[in-house]
């Protein structure tokens, strides 16, 4: 008597389909990582102020979902996540140094935008981050020569 093993191919096919559905989803690449961003201007979108001259600024989006930077006075770091054209910022960690008024005003404006969830637009080497309420914006350019 000949036995039929029709269930074995079906079992293998079912296992393959199940395993293919269990594969980890791939994340879209983060377009902001791998670049050092320098602050160009800040403030209301219609009335941007230029970044304080001769004050080094730096914003870096790490591949480990950690953001780091300085905007003229303190060193900053905090977690972030990107979904579409939105960035959600976690709790800010910063040094607590006092600096000149222009630097402190610039840093304070940056803090107001880089909290909660903000929108962003990447246009070539220019990055614009807009506050959730739409009242403030930061414009960055990709640093060159570093």
Summary of the model, kept short:
With 146 residues, this protein is an alpha+beta fold. It has helices at 7-21, 101-113; strands spanning 36-43, 49-50, 58-61, 66-70, 75-83, 86-89, 93-94, 117-123, 126-130, 137-142. It is globular.
Characterize the structure shown:
The protein is 19% helix and 36% strand. Residues 5-11 and 13-26 have low confidence and may be disordered. The chain starts with 6 loop residues before the first helix and ends with a strand. A hairpin with a 2-residue loop joins strand 8 and strand 9 (126-130). 22% of the residues are buried. With 146 residues, it is an alpha+beta fold. The longest helix is centred in the N-terminal third of the chain and has 15 residues, at 7-21. It has one domain: Lipocalin. It is built from 2 helices and 10 strands, in the order αβββββββαβββ.
List the helices and strands and how they pair.
Blueprint: H1 7-21, E1 36-43, E2 49-50, E3 58-61, E4 66-70, E5 75-83, E6 86-89, E7 93-94, H2 101-113, E8 117-123, E9 126-130, E10 137-142
